[in-house]
Amino acid sequence: MAAKAITESGITEIELVQGDITNLAQLPSIQLSETFSGFDIITALWTFGGILKSQKQAVLAHWSAFLAPGGRIVVDHEHYYRDVATLERRHVLGGEEQKEGLADAKSWKECRQQLQQLAKSAGLVTKTMERLNLPADYPDNTEWSKQAREVWKREGGKDIQPSRAYMENRKRMYVEEQRAKWRAQHYFVNHKIVAVVGILTLSEAQMEESKEEN
Question: Fewer Cβ within 10 Å of end Cβ, the chain: N or C?
Answer without folding.
Answer: N
